[in-house]
Amino acid sequence: MVSLDNLVVTTALPQIRDDLGAGLEGLEWTVNAYTLPFAVLLLTGAALGDRLGRRRVFLAGLAVFTLGSAGAALAPSIAVLIAARAVQGVGAAFVLPLTLTLLAAAVPEERRGAALGIWGAMTGLAVAVGPLIGGAVTEGASWQWIFWVNVPVGLIALPVGLRALAESRGRSTRLDFAGAALISAGLFGVAFGLVRGEGHGWTSTSVLAALVLGGLGIGAFVAWELRVARRGAAPMLPMSLFRVPGFAAVNATALLFSLGMFGSIFLLAQALQNVYGYSPLQAGVRTLPWTAMPLLIAPLAGPVSDRIGGRPLLLGGLVLNAAGLAWMALVLTTHTAYAALIGPFILSGVGMALFFVPIATVALGVVPATMQGIASGTNNALRELGGVLGIAVLSSVFAARGGYDTPTAFIDGTRPALWLGVIAVVLALLCALAIPRRGGLAAATADTSSNAADLSESPERKSGCAGRRTAVQTTSTGAAT
To answer: What's the rounded Cα separation, in Å, for the pair 294 and 198?
Structure first.
């Protein structure tokens, strides 16, 4: 449910724009108001669960998400809708990181791989059918029902969770509230400045102030985390992780991929309706050659990833993604037939599948087992953040070169935005080249661990990526997915 709400709204954006009188900035925030707190608070949600009880925080997040969904469905204006989406994002940040922990504790170790595989399949399914469900619900009822459908799910899941889930806690440490506040303020400032830049002028006081203060907030977060680590306390994000060979590379890859891919989806999902005249449901169906590819490719790519490692699949997926987006940018006109888009949609979809299958395993494989929780949270957070920045940056290019006035204006804005998406994915490919190869990964990780006091290597990880999987990295194909 929380993964579905990332993309389910995309095919409803034209109707939301008409009903609530929203402009481009309002539509951007309809998406970003969810993904920004989702990204920023993922690590905080995991830490709160470890300290206060994972079941308790999970159910509290689910309740907040359900209330936010009802608020979004009842929203009388774009401002209220954006606020309700932010509430959803806060709840989602407390739900998602604890689902894996609760799931791992609920099943025996020998069945954990299958359970994690089902979890991965549900996440992939949400990405695949998000635009389709959004279009079907919008056309069959109204855009408000995109959010209403979450409410009965939440109301059923809450009592079931109270009865079925066992409570558990992690190591009890002081929560890094200052770090969470600094990174939240910094990322919000940057996103706010990017979204408002084109409409209000890049040199306007509000935009410049937001960008500068956002940058200062991110810098202050880094300085604070280094200070916390020097004092021997537990930082929200240990900066020493970025000394691990490949950790910075895999996270930069994840951020840039999401920036290019999801910023492009934001515009193309609207183009199918605003330019080519498809209904919301028709537009959702026509995105399936792109968004449904992970469901078809993941079962095949998973065993390959287990045999040869995730790095080759990441590189291949990024090449296909860049090629698919470039192909779309070349053929996109106001008179382009849908048949001309099927090829690049499939190419990008296959590339997306080849990226999503191994990215979590690669992110966990470059760090010691004791740091896998924070590594997973960081990777998820940066992927969500990449989506936020992608929508903001590509929409700024779209607004500078085109707009919603006519189909021609929409295409004039979308094409250069797509080329920027291509550049982002190519940069992700260059970052991925810096990820250690499978054979040299264990030595690089162990060497770094010996030089960092807070990155102690566990015996189970001595064989590196090519050795036995830990409880998080099982031999199951589904776990890789």
So the answer is: 34
What are the residues whose beta carbons fall under 8 Å from the beta carbon of 405, sequence distance 6 or more?
none
**Residue 160 burial class via C-beta count within 10 angstroms: exposed 0-12, middle 13-18, buried 19 and up:** exposed
H helix intervals, 107-176? 112-140, 145-148, 150-164
CA-based torsion, 422, 426, 432, 437: positive or negative: positive
Tell me the CA distances in angstroms from 371 to 62, 73, 382, 469, one per residue in order. 26, 39, 17, 14
Asked whether 299 and 125 are in contact (CB, 8 A), the reply is no
CA dihedral 240, 245, 249, 254 (to 10 degrees): -70
Does residue 430 or residue 21 have the better pLDDT?
430
Taking the model in full, what pTM does it have? 0.76
Task: Look up residue 110 and give its DSSP letter.
Answer: G
Residue tagged 């916390």 (tokens): 228
Our CA angle for 304, 310, 315, nearest 5°, is 105
Q: Which amino acid is at 443?
A: A
| C-alpha pair distances (Å), 294 with each of 242, 288, 347, 354 | 29, 10, 11, 8
pLDDT digits (tens, 9 = 90+) for 339-387: 999 999 999 988 888 887 777 778 777 777 667 667 777 777 788 788 8
Side chain identity, residue 135:
G
| 149 in Cβ contact with 129 (< 8 Å) | no
Write the CB contacts of 389 (distance below 8 Å, at least 6 apart in sequence): 190, 191, 194, 255, 259, 263
* Distances, alpha carbon 171 to alpha carbons 93, 471, 476, in Å: 20, 17, 28
Question: Cα separation of 11 and 435, whole Å?
Answer: 36
- Whether the CA torsion 169, 174, 177, 183 is positive or negative: it is negative
